[in-house]
Amino acid sequence: MVVLCGTDRPPGLEPVERAADVRYVPADRLAAELPGADVLFVWDFTSRAVPAAWPAADAAPGWVHIASAGVDTLAFDALRDGDTVLTNSRGVFDAAIAEYVLGLVLAFAKDLPGTLDAQRHHDWRHRETETIAGRPALVVGTGPIGRAIARLLSAAGLRVSGVGRTARRDDPDFGEVHAAGELRRVLPDTDFVVLAAPLTAQTTGMIDAAALAAMRPGARLINVGRSPLVRTDDLVAALRSGSIAGAALDVFDAEPLPADSPLWTLPGLLVSPHMSGDFAGSLTTLAQLFVANFDRWRQGRPLHNVVDKHLGYVPGGAAGPATAGHPVDEVPVAGTGQEGLPAWTRT
């Protein structure tokens, strides 16, 4: 087994090391180590090294697992069209990202950036803030992360709807889900637009100049999905012109964000360093998820979180066809010592 990592190795892989020849390699050694390996664990999920290092079909690994929910760094033809099974870390980040989104919504509504700025300048500046109860929110992406966001925003009093591949009513988390083709039509009806969709050919650039022009002048955009969902230049223009009230970005075209990027100083923009899903203990949880799936692989049992390589995500409301009956967004029982770990990894 090959683990693609940088200077930091995943914690807690001792059970795997006892059962397999585990080789921890940086990106520049991947091409030499990968041919003939049975398993590739992409711990450094931001790395772009895998496509260039991918071996011939007869030497390709049978299983690739990535320590992220998104698999766009692995969207290349040789993997997509081959027999390799691809799994992801769906289910780990749902609650943390939902909490982060709620925090951003409250930060906008209560002008917390303004309060902090006034404090820094010793400026006693009383002002009124917005309420969020009853305000419309649109979550683009109806997978587990989007559903966790919808549930938490609904609990806080917002009126939430969703955008997904197909339209439907009476959804348990969104109420109404609009088809992706209806996005621009429903944008004028919402105050908070939250992007939590996977990056696919269909979602790339979905928030462009036309979509931003369709939004309310007082609306805010929050992107915790993938940066290419938004046309950055169009967003810069919209914020500079004031056509929307604000935005929060947790993902960027270039990471770390360059020091000379105009995004740092744009009015109404909150910048965070791709951290919305990262919580204390998340690295251990990611490694435990892989260890649990590794045990299934050794036993010849179906793997959890199997990605449809042509869709670019795990289909279905649970964790894909191989995991029916094991929803990964099930809330773990507090006090078990495995809080935050998807429920199926404890079975």
Offer a quick outline of the entry.
By secondary structure, the chain is an alpha/beta fold. The protein contains eleven helices and 13 strands. Helix 5 crosses helix 7.
Topology:
Elements: E1 2-4, H1 14-19, E2 23-25, H2 30-33, E3 39-42, H3 49-53, E4 63-66, H4 77-81, E5 85-87, H5 94-109, H6 112-120, E6 136-140, H7 144-155, E7 159-164, E8 168-171, E9 175-179, H8 183-186, E10 192-195, H9 209-214, E11 220-223, H10 232-241, E12 246-249, E13 269-271, H11 282-298
Parallel strand pairs: 1-2, 1-3, 3-4, 4-5, 6-7, 6-10, 7-9, 10-11, 11-12, 12-13
Antiparallel strand pairs: 8-9
Mind explaining what this structure looks like?
The protein is of the alpha/beta class and 347 residues long. It folds into 2 domains: 2-92 and 279-346, 3-Layer(aba) Sandwich (Rossmann fold); 94-271, 3-Layer(aba) Sandwich (Rossmann fold). The protein has 11 helices and 13 strands. It has helices at 14-19, 30-33, 49-53, 77-81, 94-109, 112-120, 144-155, 183-186, 209-214, 232-241, 282-298; strands at residues 2-4, 23-25, 39-42, 63-66, 85-87, 136-140, 159-164, 168-171, 175-179, 192-195, 220-223, 246-249, 269-271. The strands form 2 sheets. Strands 8-9-7-6-10-11-12-13 form an 8-stranded mixed beta sheet, with helices on one face. A 5-stranded parallel beta sheet has the order 2-1-3-4-5, with no helix packed on it. α5 (94-109) packs across α7 (144-155). The longest helix has 17 residues, at 282-298. It starts with a strand and ends in a 49-residue tail after the last helix.
